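Hi team,

Filling in the usual template for the complex we talked about on Friday. All components are listed, including any nucleic acid strands or ligand strings, so the model treats them as one assembly.

SUBMITTER: L.P.
PURPOSE: interface mapping
COMPONENTS: three
RESIDUES: 996
SEQUENCES:
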Amino acid sequence: MTEIELATPRVLTAGRRSPRGRSASSRGQWRIHVLLIVAATLMVVPFVWQILTAFKTSNEVASLPPTLFPATPTLVGFDTFFASVPFWAQFAVSATSLVLRVAGQVLVAALAGYAFARLRFPGRKVIFALFLLMLMVPSQLFVLGQFDIMKELGLLNTVPALAIPGIFSAFGTFLMRQAFITMPKEYEEAAQLDGAGTLRVFWRVMLPMARPMLAALAVLTSLYSWNDLLWPLIVSPAGDNRPLTVGLASMQGQFGTDYPALMAGALICTLPLVIVFIVLQRQFFAGIASSGLKG
Amino acid sequence: MIAPALVGLAALYLWPFLSTFVKSFMKVPVFGAGTFTGVDNYTKLLSDEDFWRALGNSARYTLLVLLGIPIAIVLAALIEQAAKGRTLYRVLFFLPVVTLPVAVGMVWRFILNGDFGILNYLLSLVGIPGEYWVADDRFTIYAFAVVGIWMGLGVNLIILGAGLQSIPVELYEASAVDGAGRIRQFFSITLPLLSPSIFFVTVLTIISALQMFDLVFVMLGSVNNTAIDGSKTIVYLFYEAAFVQFKQGYGAAIAIVLLVIIMIATAIQFRLQRRWVNYD
Amino acid sequence: MHKRLLNTAAVVAAAVLLTACSSGNTGGDSNEKVAITYGVWAGTQTPAMKEIAAAFTKEHPNITVKVEERPWPEYWSTLQTGAAGGTAPDAFWMLAQNIRPYASGGQLLNISDEIKKEKVDLSKYPKAVLDLYDQGDGKTYGLPKDVDTNAVWFNKAIFDKAGVAYPAADWTWDDFRQTAKKLTDPAAGVWGVAAPIDYQGGYYNTIFQAGGQVISADGKTAEIDSPEAQKGIEFWTNLHADKSSPTLKQLSDTEAETMFEQGKVAMYMSGAYWALKLYENKAIAGNVDVAPLPIGEKRATVTSGIVNVGYAGTKHPDAVKKFLLFASGKEAAEIQARSGAVLPAYEGGEKTWMAAMPEFKNLQVFIDAKEYSVPLPVQGNAAEWQGDQTKYLTAAWEGTTSVADATKQYADAIDKVLAEK
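RESULT (copied from the run log):
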């Protein structure tokens, strides 16, 4: 536990510009770029292949030898996808549950993280150790019990049920604690001298200072929320309250080998998050750098 | 302040965990109440060859995915040294992370198809006979590992990159004065000072690799795949027992055993780290 | 008769609705607006199911039915959690190999009374399918909506190209094997047949044709290792030994049915449920034809069908029961038949089904097959022991283990599942 604490602050520095001095001399630059371009190409090839395939016909895909570019580009794959998946309805479900989960988690985690970082209360260490232990438990293990709770609450098959378990996250709490613990205490002390209570200090002083980390947590939570498959499958089997991941997975069952349609569907469902990522990449990187947890 | 988090975690995580723990000592029928059967589930588990095979598969997968860490270290170092385009490289390497796992599985299932997958076609161009990567259980774990490394590289890269940035430039300047070359600097400065980040990434990689489930599910799951029996991971076995065969007690026992394994693996790493991780 | 019945029901329902009389004797609060859900696994049948739902609402304006598609791989896991959690669909599709735990767990509506009350003529349904769902508890949980038998789909173009005659109606196992061999052309990437490990469309049929059975008559032990059953399995392993089929690995990467659609295999033994999918594939439809299963010691095909069942936890049991009878009734059979999606279980729908795909001239073979059909073996926890098939049989299919050894081991595993209580 202490080791994790030691390890984490060190990686908190993402986003800081790397000092110029470390860059290789311009003489060596081309070698670096050649290596990086080769590696980056390998990373991107599957996506390129996916996009090219999405515009082919299923007969062309099954032909040998494979064609690189679509012989006659077609949108049939996209048509099949939109005809079989209620895209906008499921998009709305994905988006709503994402917003609920992100807003809820950021608030809950910030509160608890602050408490762990600054407040003294009995059992603090034990409770925090329990939190960390939770990180090691496979999420599948919780699913049955969470399902029972949602059932008792009468929330099965609703959008809140999709979001609620994700709101309470040991990981988010851990992340926010690390953020608060590294902050100088002077600001709080000054506010407390002015007679502000704990909650007020938290709300007015600490939360604004933690904004970068809150943003990082928000984007990471968005990532997990958007990509989640098992929980939505179990909790919302009905068509209207299913997110896009489930829609896409069910498409694979239906069109097992209609690769253009599958690739088109995968592309459409991935695109929203990729766009968000490209816009907010700084927050994504900061979030990952400060946590490293992969969901 | 801590109350909302505490209540939520207790209700939605701690309680389910405890109920799973209790269920692991019970036989739970599909519908209705279960009966206590002591350690039956565990003794059955230990004599279940499927369990041992899945354990072996998970272990093999985990070891293979760890190979992604050296790759990530080298790439992170290269990116840090690049004068231009750092952000672009990071974005490109990070793309798989923001892609839906379901979509990732689909794309790779297609690339690795034995008959008309692009990989086998490319191999045939250089005279290497292709294999049925996702239909032959001699190869499936390797296929998962390639995809797992591909998916995890972006995350590892960012963490390690942040670690690299926190190494003081002066150290490099000083050693350059001493006449150390780039390679020597890498081993004498970069690696030791990066070791906390490397350790962190290793712990996380192992925890998440031991929990791997979705690649099996999307890459082999939906067709009547004859490789599936030899390719199940431990969490897939849990999923199958708990959600497909509806043997919740047995599934619970698998989950508990997995948790114990993860804890042991993590504890071992924390002991070993004293030998190689440098916190100064 | 059934139609009159439904009309009567509709008139009564309408009358009740008009007079807003709450004490109607048509089974509950018929004037109340009720919405029920109908769970099906996604597929070519969905449009027909939606049409049936709409037709039902026309007759019962106060009841709307929402069709809920679930992906096949997750159908059973989500249904089970849903049933346990009280959120299962009000009505849903059920398979004979899966019904047991639901029935014994009290999760299904007993519709015996409704059947009696509405005087449903059970002789209109295939007895073999009804028997499959008989749990021996004197209750009826649902009526079949469709029936499937097996035949051999084949690609005329590949036959023509190889100069091989189309299958005769009375062809034998040996004819089948020789035909497959002749049609195989490795250079062209064409195989005579697809021989996956497929119980319902594949080896169960040949086990029965060889005079064997999968499970003993008392349902207590496996007989898949009997000499006759082994012969039935050798039918398939021989095809692999001849290299007349793509390997199991190839069939794992690309399903047999897809290979058939891609024109890579000439023959595919399977059910009537592929008819519409093949018919709608313009690239291949013109070459598709179908022949009866070859004859072993005797003719045989396994038969099964999907049954519409109701969830015991539904809030609207009366509406659900009405819908269940309707969805398995005559009008629904007509709708299914007209769409071509599936061969309806209700007698008399066959002609309409065949007429929906006029270019497929030999669909009659599926209907003729009913005469020699055998119920699908579904004893015990069938989903579990059937799910084990690849684990035990793959080695025999690939020729690395003898059929005798593989079936012996599989029989032991099945026995263990059957012994579970």
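MY TAKE: The mean pLDDT of chain A is 80. Residues 27-74 of chain A form one domain.

Thanks, L.
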